[in-house]
Amino acid sequence: xxLWGASTSRSLDPAFERLNASLPFDRxxxxxxxxxxxxxxxxxxxxGLLTLGECDAIVTGLDAVKAELDAGAFVFQFTDEDIxxxxxxxxxxxxxxxxxxxxxxxxxxxxxxxxxxxxxxxVWPQIDHRLRELEExxxxxxxxxxxxxxxxxxxxxRAQPIRYAHWCLAHxxxxxxxxxxxxxAYPRLATLxxxxxxxxxxxxxxxxxxxxxxxxxxxxSHNSLDAVxxxxxxxxxxxxxxxxxxxxxxxxxxxxxxxxxxFGFITLDPAYTTGSSLMPQKRNPxxxxxxxxxxxxxxGHLVGFLTVxxxxxxxxxxxxxxxxxxxxxxxxTLEMLxxxxxxxxxxxxxxPERMRGALEETILATELADYLVRKGIPxxxxxxxxxxxxxxxxxxxxxxxALPLEVMRRYHPAFDSDVYGALDPEAAAERxxxxxxxGRAAVEAQIRALQxxxxxxxxxxxxxxxxx
Amino acid sequence: xxLWGASTSRSLDPAFERLNASLPFDRxxxxxxxxxxxxxxxxxxxxGLLTLGECDAIVTGLDAVKAELDAGAFVFQFTDEDIxxxxxxxxxxxxxxxxxxxxxxxxxxxxxxxxxxxxxxxVWPQIDHRLRELEExxxxxxxxxxxxxxxxxxxxxRAQPIRYAHWCLAHxxxxxxxxxxxxxAYPRLATLxxxxxxxxxxxxxxxxxxxxxxxxxxxxSHNSLDAVxxxxxxxxxxxxxxxxxxxxxxxxxxxxxxxxxxFGFITLDPAYTTGSSLMPQKRNPxxxxxxxxxxxxxxGHLVGFLTVxxxxxxxxxxxxxxxxxxxxxxxxTLEMLxxxxxxxxxxxxxxPERMRGALEETILATELADYLVRKGIPxxxxxxxxxxxxxxxxxxxxxxxALPLEVMRRYHPAFDSDVYGALDPEAAAERxxxxxxxGRAAVEAQIRALQxxxxxxxxxxxxxxxxx
Amino acid sequence: xxLWGASTSRSLDPAFERLNASLPFDRxxxxxxxxxxxxxxxxxxxxGLLTLGECDAIVTGLDAVKAELDAGAFVFQFTDEDIxxxxxxxxxxxxxxxxxxxxxxxxxxxxxxxxxxxxxxxVWPQIDHRLRELEExxxxxxxxxxxxxxxxxxxxxRAQPIRYAHWCLAHxxxxxxxxxxxxxAYPRLATLxxxxxxxxxxxxxxxxxxxxxxxxxxxxSHNSLDAVxxxxxxxxxxxxxxxxxxxxxxxxxxxxxxxxxxFGFITLDPAYTTGSSLMPQKRNPxxxxxxxxxxxxxxGHLVGFLTVxxxxxxxxxxxxxxxxxxxxxxxxTLEMLxxxxxxxxxxxxxxPERMRGALEETILATELADYLVRKGIPxxxxxxxxxxxxxxxxxxxxxxxALPLEVMRRYHPAFDSDVYGALDPEAAAERxxxxxxxGRAAVEAQIRALQxxxxxxxxxxxxxxxxx
Amino acid sequence: xxLWGASTSRSLDPAFERLNASLPFDRxxxxxxxxxxxxxxxxxxxxGLLTLGECDAIVTGLDAVKAELDAGAFVFQFTDEDIxxxxxxxxxxxxxxxxxxxxxxxxxxxxxxxxxxxxxxxVWPQIDHRLRELEExxxxxxxxxxxxxxxxxxxxxRAQPIRYAHWCLAHxxxxxxxxxxxxxAYPRLATLxxxxxxxxxxxxxxxxxxxxxxxxxxxxSHNSLDAVxxxxxxxxxxxxxxxxxxxxxxxxxxxxxxxxxxFGFITLDPAYTTGSSLMPQKRNPxxxxxxxxxxxxxxGHLVGFLTVxxxxxxxxxxxxxxxxxxxxxxxxTLEMLxxxxxxxxxxxxxxPERMRGALEETILATELADYLVRKGIPxxxxxxxxxxxxxxxxxxxxxxxALPLEVMRRYHPAFDSDVYGALDPEAAAERxxxxxxxGRAAVEAQIRALQxxxxxxxxxxxxxxxxx
Lengths: 468, 468, 468, 468
Prior knowledge:
4 copies of one chain form a homotetramer.
Chain A: H1 14-20, H2 23-26, H3 30-46, H4 52-70, H5 83-95, H6 108-144, E1 149-154, E2 157-163, H7 164-189, E3 191-192, H8 208-215, E4 219-220, H9 224-229, H10 232-258, E5 266-267, H11 286-309, H12 324-347, E6 349-350, H13 352-357, H14 365-374, H15 379-396, H16 405-411, H17 419-422, H18 425-431, H19 440-454
């Protein structure tokens, strides 16, 4: 069955029919399509366009069709070009001509936009929840190893000692920003297009606010032409997904280094590594490599869809059918990554000796400079003095703390015997007690600040009261 | 001068020096860099690391350096690798060794992140304002021609009559979503990284909340390692810019059609078209074509930067230096487009006769189907009947309203003499009085709803109270 | 079965197993995987690592496995992580322990690169062929309507008269460049990685040239580390696909305009349009809109994969597993589009009256300027004179040819009575007899030049003799 | 001066004028624009449209204008909207009204396409040359350290021993593919559009082949409409640039690891590293990080421009003006990177002890398996046996070669006293003497094969004879 055309005699080029068909992917929207249709039938009844009996027949019929789909018993037909058609066709078979009243005042244009929004409205809390699980795993690592030090890196060069917990939390904060973006985008997503008809609004007295409430939307669209053209919510989702992907790729990159033989800072639970088909000794961090790579895929979906939208005329254009596949794939990709990574992070084992072994003394050069600053030497001068000292120590093959005081004094008279106390990684970390710093109390405060945000929910979003 | 290295004797490969230098583009950040340094000097003084006299000398010196830069009198040197170095070098020349105290406890890593955030914090209200100007121009068109009808299009085929005002407003709502995104992203942008040092926090007792207040930030970063690695605010800006670009490209595409000879719906003021170097008769809508094309450029910047971030280790990496050029270019691109388009829209002239001429009767076929629905015919049957009627009318070369009632009745007995009243575009539009529809009252309500949003300001953002 | 790990006791996190599994998509490579394994078995036999009997057993077993896969009778198991594993596992079940000799000296790293190259080597001539079919359809249109004139557009404004055939051929030449790119990239694609082992080469005396010949490769890779890391051939394919997509999107955009009611230049065969679910009168050019939109998807795949490759260490990394899905989807997308569009183009009907009706006289303004040039007036002066004439004609509401000679002479004395002959679209087109121009003979020469290129084949590629 | 418009009285919105102006970036094309104009003047003379005297005057005038531009003495005016206008305006000032004859039969549409192609035709051999310089530097490293072994990595885990030379050459081969792509794309680039007029061809008898020869083009375009619309050569250049960027990012990533303290395989010459503004001990590989990051920028340019092209109508559209900036930036980016990296690579120092130290024995596990294969054990069985041996050795904390023969025999009776000979990295590498392998002779053959390709030139391209 087609939902259009005067006669069944008209035949399409089969290749075109295949290109045109969205059923292979949009069938995934059947629960949303049926929920939307049930709400629409009730709205038609309230508007006097269906009798209560007709409405009941349609709702019961749709429930039956849904049961068939849930059970995998629904038989799709070659001519079902999309899920909307398939469901309406089956409804017609089940309940007869009254099914023909369901599409009154509605168009596939507002219907499909409603379906996809409903789908994402269900996805939102799932992603939010999984992001939080990964944050929790990072926090658990931080708490379990609160006093473990490791080198912090810039330019992949050892820079200054930091807490391992601080490194864990850095990644958690990035994910928390992703949750914030989800929360903010939700009210825009949860805006009901239904009732916009093909483009100009429906001519029947539908209660759109009631429809929105029934379907869980927070507000209704203000312009019917915009409502059927607008796919900002898709682009915005794909952007948030790409940002999550980028954050996971950065976490993965750090962990790929840290689990290499050369760093050896962390070992992964064997449940998250694979072997080689050729080399018996290998333990490959495939999960991390995939986490790094999937960012590319997610960026690709974002760009691909922005390119689809670029230069598109207003109103519904078939180009918009390209919205579903990237959404589904991005949802599945995030779901897979965010199911694996919390377990991987929770079970990974930091290796204290390897971390401590990497805290060579030159990493404390800043401490020496700050020591001089505290003695009143301008930082630039202190910096130059310490640079020379570091060069001396490298030239002599002696660690900084092995340089005798008189050698240090040759570089600057302000050095005194308390200088050796500055060359302690623990003390260096503790000196960063400023808010945001790597000192223990600061890190503990960080954890509390992060946990406090977990209690914010999507529901408590500031715009959630918008609908009256 | 370089800010690093024990001796000036060390020489770099000149080609590398050129690759490495960011001065050619980051000099644009000098006002922000100097503001940040003044606030930092004061924070150092409050922390007891500078005497009041030293602080005054530094602040006065920085003011003088800024005056030189403002006046174009600042002489850059070959060895100034970035704007931070250039300013500190000049400060040293102006006020002597005390300048060497300014960089105490600070790193270029937290400094440059602060500068770029300050820059965008100034850009934000400007873009917001220009978006609103374009919305105002669209609303002005809508109000001036509130009763003008035109065909609404789907698939670039005439679909149903809509108000020209409705078309104008559809584009305005898209821009309003862009303003919403700006408003929401602002608190994330206005988060102070300064005080994070190179990566582990500053070891001196700096009052970061005070710094934030002085510089206009809304909150302070929670993790120093994240603070120097985080460029989400750049990616988020580039995404918002790309979405604005996409919206402008869609508006431009509509207008390019509408101003073509074939549509002829709108004429542009000659101040916004150009001629041809070869063809004397041409009036080319270059401004619109550029508006359409610039979306590509903005999408390119977004993708380029996400690709830079993908797989980047945490901590500062030089890769992040690639953040500035796309930001500057996106800002300039938006600024140019959003300066031109409000004027173009305000001065464009809709052509009522051409619009009316395009409202051929088949555009009212939905009205006939809805007519039958009101008589109790299921929509699917009504649809089929009208499809056949349309085919008859095309076959006979007669308009729908020229079909005699008995012909109509041959297709369905429910047709009655009041059917001809359904075939009126004005009435068709007025029937869409539902909220979001193209009926006059609905459109007027839309305008009020949009205007109500204009009063929301960036400042009133829900998170703006976050800083204590 | 896993191809790695000492014991089956080791258990993976099921979520990770799902993330890691490539079987859901790489099963598509089974014909190539089996072809590659058969060739490998024979190479092992020639190298003395298999007896002829063992080799026969393996080859016969692989044929049997292939027959199962062809028939859909192959039963995949939960633990088959990829198609290579599944096939080797089944082979083991079929022929016993000798199957364990097949993987000698081979790694999945060189195996999978070989499979994917083989897959694309089969795809290449198919795409090439379909591109040519679309060119043929465009040429058929050109030939059938060789004398039909229409306005040529720049900036979507009527510019100068051109042959409809010229417009058809412009799109054909773009596709011909795509075919050229395919042809050039083929030798790089048809480079055999097999024999590279995991990364360092196989330690057994395999005849790689013989392997290449047997599998249809044109040359062998020169560096085993590069051979397992290199995915240039994937990126290059995705670029060619994106370029094809862009070309099809431009053709589609032209046709979407031309089939709109406002242009009315072309009507599509009903086999390539759809109706509306709400509006009975609609004929929507969905095929064209999809052709326009799919460019976005193809660009997305290209970018996504380049982003995967960015910053990837050399050697095989699991990230490379992301190569297959974009390749498969790009192949399917091109295959669908290029199956539909030749039929659509072949059956579309140009509408001569609408085209002629659009050839208003101002489109001939350049002719007037060139007329003056022929009388010795510098072009810039001629241009200015004609601009003023065009303004006069528009002001007076008279066509250019309706302006009396004395009026024209007021603008320039060189106008003479032969000027009216310049105002003929046919003559204007014929004056463009230069090579590449829209004159009839030039267009016919174009067609011959294009057809001459069709005889070049992928096989005759200049590099095809590279293998000795 | 504007090249269009009847009167100077018409005023543009200044903001639009700024948006529209391409002079700020297209001025870079002045040498190409003047070369093209000189050739055009001569072609007009040969066609009888200019007298020899007029032609001489124009050519001399253009030379003078070029001299002004070369000397930086050319004064641009506010109304010069692009470089073409600026040059023609100045020519008019210099030689009077005869300058007005230069634009005869030409349009900016074919002129600007010619200019940009000429620009890239000059860029091509420069990039080709620099790529080769980087290959030479890699080959020089390979030759200087032909016997140095290091671990080869897959999944960033130590996999098998390879020659350092093999690793160097892997990157060289990737660059060689880039050179191949340049060579192949050149004939498409070197196709002359001039003579296409605005879109339909020039009506004057211009000798286009002669023009092509004079300007160094290899062929002429076949369709004037395509010629002014076609920007494939831009997209193709941006793709090649993005691929080069990706290759450099992978080389950079390897080197960033290898120069980290943890790997310590390579030290960079201090001329290619920088220090930290805060941490005196740092040696940061900024050049490598920028090389990694610039891939993002180049990918961004590619995507941005493909997005511009997507859905663009045929004929010239102002959107195409967006072609120049990404081209210029990509050229400059490549030029900078490819000037720095050859020196960096040439001067870097491999650290033999660190490399050797990383060749722990488990890296030779594959050798043990292959040892058993040589004794007739099926590879899968051998693999399992060795996996168990590796586990035993790790459990016992003994290296593989420290396991007594009787222990080995407990795992498989085929082990014999010659097994210890298999555990030698040098021998393992030498066993890979197959073509493409890491054996010494194979690596030397690789170097010869690569060098042989250097002699191929852009000129010797198979299509270079195409023009008659």
